[in-house]
Amino acid sequence: MEITLGSMDSDVVVVGLVGDLVAGTAEELKRQIDKLLQKNFNKILVELANVNFMDSSGLGACMALHKMVSEHKGRIAFVKPNDTVAKVFRITRADQKLALVKSKSEGHQYLTATQK
Amino acid sequence: MMKISILTEEPLGRRNHIVLILAPMFEEIDAARQMVDELCREYYSGANAQEQLGDLLLAITEAMNNVVEHGRTGLIEVELTAHPERVIFVIRSDGLPFDPTTEVAMPELDGADDLPEGGFGRALILELMDEVRYEFTDGKNVLKLTRNIVS
């Protein structure tokens, strides 16, 4: 899986994922987010549109990211998963706990509006 | 380094049956999933089948992950057979007996800030497959997953 980092404005970091979010790639994602948090970036948009497949390890990584960012008093949103990936969030009911948004602008609004 | 082995030689898109031998590594699970995906997309061309195939790929990935994570196994044999109305996927592995079919609930998320990061795999398999059977025979764990395909 390819992980790219970009900024949306001075506060929000966009983490783009391309490939499969699975057991073999989930740890690297957690490491990358941890690095951002260590640098005090705590508003994070994770772009899922180019994630073709996600298993329960990938879902667990999303849960872990939510927890990590919350512990740093930040917010994280997951942008536009495809139908296959969205189904994993839905049937595990994780979509009721994680912020899934339809666009980057919606995610930006969520992150900035809820930031304390 | 990919060590995946295929025990038949016909082109992937023209068959309804494959047997793969995998080392217990996540990279090999990824490769096996991609091969199953390719075979099934060729075999089941109907638009209605695609979501069902997505369910199948998720369940077999979870089943193979379980073997790698809990099985203490050597090589893993996976066998897939596509029939017009169902797909049958069988995993054979050595190691300690491990029955993944024991009824398990989806982890509870309601009211918890401390979100669970694991425990979804077996629940997903049971949710997404039409039939899940396990037996320990001749020193091997044998897990058979069946998914009906409605065209």
Topology:
The complex is a heterodimer of chains A (116) and B (151).
Chain A: E1 2-7, E2 12-21, H1 23-38, E3 43-54, H2 56-71, E4 75-79, H3 83-91, E5 99-101, H4 104-114
Helix pairs in contact in A: 1-2
Chain B: E1 5-6, E2 17-22, H1 26-43, H2 49-70, E3 76-82, E4 86-93, H3 121-128, E5 131-137, E6 140-148
Antiparallel strand pairs in B: 1-2, 2-3, 3-4, 4-6, 5-6
Could you explain the architecture of this structure?
The complex is a heterodimer of chains A (116) and B (151). The N and C termini of chain A lie far apart (33 Å). By secondary structure, chain A is an alpha/beta fold. Chain A is globular, with a radius of gyration of 13 Å. In chain A, helix 1 runs parallel beside helix 2 (56-71). A 5-stranded mixed β-sheet of chain A has the order 1-2-3-4-5, with helices on both faces. Chain A contains 4 helices and 5 strands. The mean pLDDT of chain A is 93. Chain A is 45% helix and 31% strand. A 6-stranded antiparallel β-sheet of chain B has the order 1-2-3-4-6-5, with helices on one face. Helix content of chain B is 32%, strand content 26%. In chain B, 32% of the residues are buried. In chain B, strand 5 and strand 6 (140-148) form a beta hairpin. Chain B has 151 residues and is of the alpha+beta class. Chain B has one domain (16-108, 117-148): Histidine kinase-like ATPase, C-terminal domain (Heat Shock Protein 90, 2-Layer Sandwich). Classes of the chains: A alpha/beta (116), B alpha+beta (151). At the A-B interface, helix 2 and helix 3 of A face helix 1, helix 2 and helix 3 of B.
CATH class of chain B: Alpha Beta
Element order, helices and strands of chain B? EEHHEEHEE
The CATH superfamily of chain A turns out to be STAS domain
What is the strand arrangement across the widest sheet of chain A?
1-2-3-4-5
Q: Low-confidence segments of chain A, ≥5 residues, pLDDT <50?
A: none
Number of DSSP strands of chain A? 5
